[in-house]
Amino acid sequence: MGPSADAPLPTTPAAEAVRSLSRTGDADTGTVVWHRSDLRIADNPALAAAADDSDRILPLFVFDPGFHDERGAACDARIAFLHDCLRDLDRQYHDVDGAGLTYAHGDPIEVLGRFADAGWDVVASATPTGRYGRRRDERARERLGVRFVAGDGLVRDADRPREGWSDRVESWLAGDPFDWDPRSVAVDGVETGISPGRLADAYGIEPAKTRVPTGGRGPARERLRAFTDRIAEYPGSISSPVDALEGTSGLSPYLRFGCLSVREVHRHVDERAPDGRGKSMFVSRLFWNRHYTQKLLDWPGWLDRAVNPVYEGFNRDRHDPDLVAAWKRGETGFPMVDASMRCLRETGWLNFRMRALCASFYFHILQQPWKIGADHFYEHLIDGDPAINYTQWQSQCGLVGRPGLRLYDPRKQVRDQDPDGEFVTRWVPELDPLPAAHLDAPEKAPLAVQREVGIEIGEAYPYPVVDYEAAREEFRERYGAAYPAAAERLGDDAIARRASLSGGLDAASSIAADHGESDADVDGGPAQTDLDEF
Ligand SMILES: Cc1cc2nc3c(=O)[nH]c(=O)nc-3n(C[C@H](O)[C@H](O)[C@H](O)COP(=O)(O)OP(=O)(O)OC[C@H]3O[C@@H](n4cnc5c(N)ncnc54)[C@H](O)[C@@H]3O)c2cc1C
Q: Locate the Photolyase/cryptochrome alpha/beta domain: which residues (predicted)?
């Protein structure tokens, strides 16, 4: 929704307010630190660079109407989480005796232009984004001379970014954090009348989700500490949606908004966690974070186009809004999918396997266009990260064209991951009366059982919206028919570069050379690669 007519928000700070910041003497102006998704003052490359260059800095966050009005893609709960993170960042600056964070509102180029016109330099951390963010950053660089400082471990400006990639990421992880000395700089601010609360009022932000964690560096550090203490249990907790709730780190929204850097998390775990499988599996997940983010850096089209052009438009001719709506509402008649989709909508979080299951079911079984599903995830996930969500969707759907289709059987997932039905009945309470043995396929529960427990499948809970086995077979045929051409396209240098495979261009050309040779299913199998496969 747009800003309310009662409380319209102007583009602010106004040019006069910025000019009034000028002081007499040597340090007339200084450097604006434009925070975007790096909401911390530690290990922050842009802030360290600004403090190095100037003795006066002004930390700034710009609320861009494009993210908050009807064009915005985030649910209100994610915006509220962002607001927590901003208030926390404001406190971090106050804690070092600074003036706090300056909040602005408007087109970032216009806002930053007012500072540039008054003689301020502007720096920001370089962050991979989609096309909108890229255009915005290009305009900021060209028109205003904004300097983007890299420091996130990703490989930039290399002809073959994937060559020696994991070694480079590893040495970045082992490196010292970016540092600055708050005593050597004045942290200034300007009153703008904007705050997260005012913004929330103006745009009618009303978070409707439950169990959403509190944003900010303090809660993030708490979580990191608690997780490190129980890291030995991590490997056994990843796959089940019940165990994962407490068993995985829960750090994703904090990493998404940069309350902690990936490097800080790595260092903490490296130094404090006991050696073992839990530690190595977790570290490999941090590499996955960088791996997918590198993909978006290498090609911004991941957000809206199939990475392999052969699969562009796949399933488009089958678009059925009723099927999409049933999937979104969690009313497909497949309990594990339905429980997961309702959990996503209500809490904004799902563990990896359930995200993968729902994406696979949507694309392979319902055979619906991938982007609508990916957008729905992106809207509802509190950790919704364009770099991971859309690239993961394309990988799970098989749009890259590499061998090994990731098909998950939703019934098997109930039997394997929720045999007592705890997760399913928590989110699909209408199935609660049914004995757990029938929760994988309620429609097959004998009528006598249904009568005895007082539930009628088809009334209380829907029959499956598709015939699973037939749909799966049909998809395999359709997908398989296009697969050799898709594999071959990976031999094309431009397509191989945008796919940004962990094995680089060589991996892409070897898939092209073997085209069509392998399309083995992964049925709930190893959907994430180990560290040594990078
Ligand atoms: C279809 C789909 C969409 C996804 N969308 C997102 C998203 O928008 N944002 C997001 O952060 N993660 C996304 N993931 C990856 C993964 O599911 C989440 O990172 C994880 O469930 C978050 O919980 P956690 O922090 O407790 O994870 P942990 O298991 O504790 O992992 C620690 C961190 O490692 C990183 N990580 C873990 N798994 C992956 C992975 N498979 N790919 C990339 N990074 C990973 C995350 O930063 C995570 O916070 C998606 C996965 C799928 C299959």
A: 29-154
